[in-house]
Amino acid sequence: MFVDLSTIGLVWPEFILILIAAWIYVGGTLAPGRTTWNVLAWSTYLVVFLVMLKNERALWHDVAAGLVAINGPLIVDYLGQVSRYGCLLLGLLITMIASRAGAERLATEVSGTIMMLVAGLMLVCRANELVFLFVALELISVPTYVLLFLGRADRASGEATVKYFFLSLIASAMLLYGMSTLYGVADGTTVISGTAEVPGIRGALDRLPAGHTSLFLIGWVMVVCGLGFKIAAVPFHFYAPDVYEGTTNINAGLLAVAPKVAGILALIRLVLAVVPADAAWGWPLMWVLAMLTMTWGNVCALWQQNLRRLMAFSSVAHAGYMLIGFTVALVAPAAGGVGATLLYLTVYALAGLGVFAALAYLSDERHEVDGVAELAGLARSHPWVAGALAFCLFSLAGIPPLAGFWGKLALFTGAVRVVLAGDGGVSSWLLVLAVTGVLNAVIAAAYYLRVIGVMYFTAPVTRVAAPGGMGAMLGTLACTLLVLVLSVWPGLAFRMADAADPLLRQARPAVVAAWRMEASAAFAHDGDLAGRWQKGGD
Amino acid sequence: MDEILNILMILVPALPLAAAVLVAALGPRMLRARSHWPVVAALIGSCLASLVLLWHVWRQPSGYERVATYWTWALVPDAYAGESGTQSVDSRIDVPPGTATPADSARLAGSSPRARDFAVDITLRLDALTGIMLAMVTFVSLLVAIYSIGYMHGDRGYWRFFTYIALFVFSMTMLVSVSNFVLLFVFWEAVGVCSYLLIGFWYEKPAAAAAGMKAFLVNRVGDFGFMLGVFLIWTTYGTLNYHDTPAPVRDTVAASAAPVGGGEAAEIVPGVLGSQRIATGAYVGGGTGLAICLLLLLGACGKSAQFPLHVWLPDAMEGPTPVSALIHAATMVTAGVYMVARCTPLFTASPDGQLVVAAIGTFTALLAALIALTQFDLKRVLAYSTISQLGYMFLGLGTGTLAGISAGMFHLVTHAFFKALLFLGAGSVMHAMGNVIDMRQFGGLRRVMPRTFWTFLIGCLALSGIAPLSGFWSKDAILASVHARVEVLEHELVRRQGAAEPDADPAHGSAGAVELSADQLGRGAWAYRLMYITALITAFLTSVYTFRMLYLTFFGAQRIPAEAGGRAHESPGLMVWPLLILAGCAAVAGMVLDQSYWNGTHPFAALLAGTPSLTGAVASTEALGAFHIDIAAVSLLVAVAGVACASWLYLGDRRTVHRLRAVMDLEGWAPAGGRANLLRLAQRPGVRGWNQWMERMRLGWLMHLLVELVLLLALILSVPLLLCRFMSPYRLSYGKFFLDELYWGLVVQPLRGIAWLCSVLDDFFVDGIVNALGRLPAHLGTILRSTQTGLVQFYALAMILGGLMLLVLVDQQLVSRVGAWLAAIMAGCGAW
């Protein structure tokens, strides 16, 4: 329909990733071997990262100035730009951590599938069309099923895979149902955020005579439900503890991060974009979800003996914190709620991945580290791993001045800012939300600190081997280092998160452009692209 | 020259600080037994720099001050609102008549219509007072540091000791150099910390640790008062700088509010002790002024161990002896004296405050001297003597005259020499006696350690005030200034009673007394006379306990305790040389600094009088440094009498002293009443006959009644007698007037009770609530976890139901609408 060569030019990195992934699949069957293909995967991420960085210099300049381009099913803006690089980094880290995952024979399947998944993530980052978004999300889900299946060949793992598969199907169905409803009420519009010439869903709805409100609400809520499964919000979280427990540490890490990133981005792209400016029904839903999710996750995580179950509930709780940002964004778009959520997402993803990387380093397919008690005395047997693990857990708990603290600070500040500025009704609800968030942080500290206490102050029970390999170790250290960087230099993260917040951008004097990017421009080294941005409005 | 001066002013504190850092870093690993080298080198440098600075000040005209601002440490813009303007400030500044015209005060107040900044600048000052203190502190520190090389030799914490000493010298030199009350407080606390660390230097000893804690806690009381005083200065004067500072130029309002009185363009915020304020005399008197004085005095009482906060100093003797000499005799304890002298204009504004200073000083001097009479611990005698001499200094400051203040400071300097000497001598004895310090366990040491004996003797003579040693001159100067004060006040009183109108002609009145009310005059004359007499009595007691200490230690039969291990010997040269130098100073310092007896000049007082704070506001009553032969004769006589008394009691056999002690202990004053005594009385010949006669007359019951009455009377009478038995003069003195026990009962125990109550409340009440709340999430978790059934059907159902719930939440009419649809469908079905 409106896809042309320039669109292909914009998604070339994803194409490259998919091609390389296919090559890895095929090549892996012809020439099995772990190391070679892993090195290929790593270098692919790196090369793509660097080439993107080099080619998109002009693009960076424009998006950093707040310009937005709609190109076919894609939206080109700062958020999409930054998060794509983040996804590549994520892929690199996960591949590193999973460098010894699975059987030797199937090693290439793991790294290839991860690459597929990363390609899907990168597409979600810029998706601006219903079908495109759904396909991109499925490009994440399907590799996840494969990875879960590849994880371990036993009954527990099989059960976990099937559970995830079924429930994910239901969630996809709900999402698809919601999307088709939106498509229907918006008079066949599939573009999510549009321009003056090509209206998006919201624009189309505004042009239509009223009368579809109820149907629109059904569609909207269904989309929230489907994406709620991705981020494991209550009551769509039930799969998480069972699946995490059943699968490997590496897969649990992947599940804790990748769907959450995709879900949050899709929520920003779709759910926030179609809400009318004066909607009073949006924030109560997010409020309830946030309250339920963080409290449920945290109280269930208390005194869990299984590490992956604990981390599963903890990931549920973190989704709850992020929903605070959405609540704030729905109440007051200019309060920076989405920016805070993005910051929190980054911080959470790095620290959570660090935790699972450390666990992966201590595990292999013969023996996964399961119980909290197995970590006893880790500080003495593996001081570096214990240190990194403790650091990431501290960050997750939000101990100042670590990155997790800055994330929580941003979220709660957003809520409090609305409370201070706002009128009576909404502000008192948000105050309750912020206070509950803080109380939840206190509850969360209890179980994180217990793990750290076990590592540092308990005599070892069994000798913990560390068969996870250097890749996992490097991944652990890299995650820890990145958390450290964000801890000591939060200003950078704050600035980038604010710049990525699409609602903030709209609140500013708008510079929204409709721009047909030339195919050559995507590969142009230093063209004056800014000259081609045109002013437009949504 | 300016550059050099600035560098020297910074070097004096910076060198010890550098040494402290160096020794702290390298001491435990590399320097170890060589840890003293950086410190001694730094102190030599500091001492030389201080002497150069003092020499520089000496050559400058009177009133010289040099203020060097290095950087701004803290800045709060517009912190002082001046209580919304000119009028209120003006009305609160109580300008003495005649010293400042209304125009002056208007100009002064006019410079504060705008809000002022709260700025703490790192500013060092140099004037006569600071120069003298710097030279004294660094000189004594250097000698003590050298002495410590021998004394602390082989100690496990050798490097730690020298680190602390260097840190202390840094803090002390900063304390006397800074030009801001906040920084004064900071370094006030810093020397307190050093003192705490050094008292508890041998922290394995429970007594030492407890003494350190006691010193710290007692000082907190004083520091709290000091802090409040600083706050009050801020709210009253709107600045905490000593010196005048240019007002911050921030906006154009300054141009319109240009100074009224003068043509100077630059607006000045007058410092609390700045030349502008001293010149105009704009100091707050009345209740606020008195409160400032008393709060500052409370701080001084803590640091300088004055009653009622003196109890920490004797216990502080648990620290190493060089520390006692340096910190607890010569330098740190004089910080209070320095501070009061520095704040003289504030005290001058409040004559009642001055009277309190003098009264506290006198009372402390007497009290400590009485206690010192009966102590057996050599260092404790010296400690009480220090308290007593500090009391003298406060008495001098409390006269409020330039003569009195310079006498107090003079005594501070001479006291630093001879008390450091005495402490180091005591340390030398302790060193030889295997750390035994109880004077009952040794004696007759003058042949064992002759050099220590001779230097100690010089110290004793100086402390007793025997001419011509240094103590005589300074003590005499204090007594003379008090006497002069009495005369001035009485003269003014007489003059006013003679005159019809009290203030008919103020110009003819004695300076320093005109502004006093008749009530204040009468009270002052009476009080200062009493203080003069008390000070004389104290002087007598001083020479008694000093020579008692000397005789007990160095005279009599030679006794050496077993702890000395038969190796009692004279101390090594490193320890003796500082003794000799200090002895030399203690002997001649008085004659050099006070030459009034032969050429009528008083170089010390002349130099000190050049301090800006002491010019202007202080009324100088007479020519400085005049030598009063009558007062000198009286004080010398009293001192010699004391020495004679001590010699009579303690030289030869000591039966007299034992008898005296028995008398003072009220021995044999057992309750005279009692049944046994009465029965014995009944057996006496005269009484027995009378008694028998009464019995025969059937009047025996009368006799019994009489006896019972007498018994009752005796019982009542015996209560005070019993009390006397426990609190005989001797026991009061020996028990330090039971002040420690009093504080224990009145302060420590109640506080412990409150602490216990708080801890119980915390344990049961607060913790109970917190724990109950803490269990809540866990219980909630137990309930919620039960939903985690593991059944995938349930999960799917929960998702769909949850989605529906959310739908209902978002669209409240949905239920009714769905109901309507269903009804319609049913209707349709029915129709079909």
* Straight-line N-to-C gap of chain B: 116 Å
Strand segment count of chain A: 4
Count every beta strand of chain B, where a strand is a DSSP E run of 2 or more residues: 4
Beta-strand content of chain B:
under 5%
User: What are the segments of chain B in which pLDDT stays under 50 over at least 5 consecutive residues?
Assistant: 83-114, 251-265, 504-510
Number of helices of chain A: 23
Helix share bin of chain B: 55-70%
- The dominant shape of chain A is globular
- Let me know the average pLDDT of chain A: 87
Query: How many H/I helical runs of chain B?
Result: 32
What would you note in describing this structure?
The complex is a heterodimer of chains A (538) and B (832). Chain A has a domain at 279-507. In chain A, the strands form 2 sheets. A two-stranded antiparallel sheet of chain A has the order 1-2. A two-stranded antiparallel ribbon of chain A has the order 3-4. Chain A contains 23 helices and 4 strands. By secondary structure, chain A is mainly α. Chain A is 72% helix and 2% strand. In chain A, a hairpin with a 2-residue loop joins β1 and β2. Chain A is globular, with a radius of gyration of 22 Å. Chain B is mainly alpha-helical. In chain B, 69% of the residues lie in helices and 4% in strands. Chain B is built from 32 helices and 4 strands. In chain B, the strands form 2 sheets. A two-stranded antiparallel sheet of chain B has the order 1-2. In chain B, strands 3-4 form a two-stranded antiparallel sheet. The chains are: A mainly alpha (538), B mainly alpha (832).
Please give the structural blueprint.
The complex is a heterodimer of chains A (538) and B (832).
Chain A: H1 5-10, H2 12-30, H3 34-55, H4 57-64, E1 69-71, E2 74-76, H5 78-97, H6 107-126, H7 130-151, H8 155-185, H9 201-207, H10 213-231, H11 239-246, H12 249-271, H13 282-301, H14 307-331, H15 337-361, H16 378-381, H17 383-397, H18 403-421, H19 424-457, H20 469-488, H21 490-500, H22 502-507, E3 512-513, H23 519-523, E4 535-536
Antiparallel strand pairs in A: 1-2, 3-4
Helix pairs in contact in A: 2-3, 2-6, 3-5, 3-6, 5-6, 5-15, 5-20, 5-21, 6-7, 6-12, 7-8, 7-12, 8-10, 8-11, 10-12, 11-14, 12-14, 12-15, 13-14, 13-19, 14-15, 14-18, 14-19, 15-17, 15-18, 15-20, 15-21, 17-19, 17-20, 18-19, 18-20, 20-21
Chain B: H1 2-31, H2 36-59, E1 66-80, H3 86-92, H4 102-110, E2 116-126, H5 128-151, H6 158-177, H7 181-199, H8 206-237, E3 245-246, H9 253-256, E4 268-269, H10 275-280, H11 286-303, H12 312-315, H13 321-330, H14 335-342, H15 344-348, H16 351-372, H17 378-398, H18 402-432, H19 450-464, H20 470-498, H21 518-554, H22 573-593, H23 603-609, H24 629-650, H25 655-664, H26 675-682, H27 685-696, H28 700-726, H29 729-734, H30 739-785, H31 792-810, H32 814-831
Antiparallel strand pairs in B: 1-2, 3-4
Helix pairs in contact in B: 1-2, 1-6, 2-5, 2-6, 3-4, 5-6, 5-13, 5-18, 5-22, 6-7, 7-8, 8-11, 11-14, 11-16, 13-18, 16-17, 16-21, 17-18, 17-20, 17-21, 18-19, 18-20, 18-22, 18-23, 19-21, 19-22, 20-21, 20-22, 20-24, 21-24, 27-28
